[in-house]
Amino acid sequence: MATGAYFVVIPFSSAEDGEFVAGEPFEARTPTGALFKARVAALNSGGAVAFSRTGDSRLGEFGDAVVLGSFGATPDDLAPYLSA
Length: 84
What we know:
With about 80 residues, this protein is of the alpha+beta class. It has a domain at about 10-55. The chain has 2 helices and 6 strands. Strands 1, 2, 3, 4, 5 and 6 form a 6-stranded antiparallel sheet that branches.
């Protein structure tokens, strides 16, 4: 079983109409790494969120996401982005 903790960053930018556009999510090895990468992504794209999930990647089963940090401009409601 490949159960473990996964640390993910989602960068965000703003479309011309002001809506948020999520960039391609990417992983980090540690929570500290995810926070660092989210800060850098926010500087480059306008905003980013770092979060963690625990689960089994082979089965595609994950628990609820836990937001580690949010930087820059991000949506107020992150649920649609974290539930994938």
